[in-house]
């Protein structure tokens, strides 16, 4: 097993104490008639999130890069939940062209989007670039979801009250945004810092989007799901470290439990109208100080708009 989020420099004892624990969403809310879009839904937290929300009666759109795995996951969820309204759609967040095609399909084929869960991510991969030349982690984890969310905003507004949920990470606390070199073109690549930058960007994006959406009925929140056994960290080498030991594997949550925070933010009645917040599992917490910097959040929005789609954004 590997863990959903880990960055060097964190005290392991405190990390385990505060971020391994966390139970199930206690809300019994069902969502018949509501449409939920989940990115990265063919495995791990995304798949379990789609499964749980399908059990609650939602119409689930699973956006995934690997269509073979996505189709298999959708079929499995339909079989387990007896909900026929679970669909696999191609979405490659490392491609602006693919993101635009996916969003256009949603806008044309779906009457509404009640919940958008920006779940997909990559972690500590090599110095890869997206199709459009962005550093892979910044491109997929932040820019891809930034563009997708903005392309679906009209549909979300039409469906209000609606919710956007961004999967962030505890790793944001050691992240910093380097506006001079967001894509690691002029400095030695550090995959850990690149990941932490992308996760800080998730929280900053959440706060800035919430500000821009005031009065629309669309809320947006970020969540760290806890320490979860998934294949997200397959590039980290943790599978060859002490973290792969049988003892440590007992301390991490399985994807079903890892999905509970996303489910909570998607369905909980007590969160209606709550926006711009950061959740550590299912508890609202104040994020790191650098995630509260409104000027940095504004600059990141403008930089993201220029990079992902010049002239697109006017919400």
From TrEMBL:
The keyword Cell inner membrane does not apply. The keyword Oxidoreductase applies. It comes from the Eukaryota. Keywords: Oxidoreductase. GO terms for molecular function: oxidoreductase activity. InterPro entries: NAD(P)-bd_dom_sf, SDR_fam. Belongs to the short-chain dehydrogenases/reductases (SDR) family. This is Retinol dehydrogenase 13. It comes from Scophthalmus maximus (Turbot). The lineage of its organism: Eukaryota, Metazoa, Chordata, Craniata, Vertebrata. The gene is LOC118287044.
